Amino acid sequence: MNSRLPMEMVGCYCKKEGYAFKVDDRYPLKEDVNMFTNEIPGFGAVRLEYLVSDFTGTLSVDGKLLPGVKERLNRIAELLDIHILTADTFGKARAALRGVKCEIHILEGKRHDIQKKGYVGMLGAEKVIALGNGKNDRSMLKAARIGVAVCLREGCATEAITSADILVTSPVDALDLLLRPKRCKATLRF
Questions:
Q1: Which domain holds residue 18?
Q2: CA–CA distance, 163 with 159 (Å, rounded to integer)
Q3: Are residues 87 and 17 in the same domain?
Q4: Quick check: helix, strand or coil at residue 85?
Q5: What is the full DSSP assignment across 165-187?
Q6: Could you tell me if 119 and 132 are in contact, meaning their C-beta atoms sit under 8 angstroms apart?
Q7: Which of 79, 151, 152, 158 is the most exposed place for a label (fewest CB within 10 A)?
Q8: Any idea what the Cα angle at residue 2 is, between residues 47 and 78, rounded to 5°?
């Protein structure tokens, strides 16, 4: 796997061992990079350390990870720590995410919306980009620095859409906001 970032990353920065360095074609991405930074006019500075995502209906359909998601998640794992929070409706999340560099948290009990928001808060909401589609994702999407509602065949709860900063129609598009940050900048700037 090529761990170099696309040329669109020029002008964005990653933080390594306390030092910010410009990412461009001359700098291969190192495994210990732990932050993604982007300055977005009007929206402000974005300094992310975590990607927190729902699984069912966000990264998968009927419990099956969608094409292109695994590769993108593993590229993003070189930039950010990835956490998957899911009720795992189909019971397939762990198997589908095998080989993906992420932490998987299967939620139990009630009020998954509060559990997800609390998890984002524990990480530091200003350092999180969150992906989700369900009503139980609305609070984490609103709390995160960037909330992305993903609308697939399962649909997307209107409360998730109104709580998000961005709406996309595929998880590949959502993940490409990090891999091609000019897309994110173009959408959020004002």
A1: 7-45
A2: 6
A3: no
A4: strand
A5: SEEESSHHHHHHHHHSHHHHHHH
A6: no
A7: 158
A8: 30
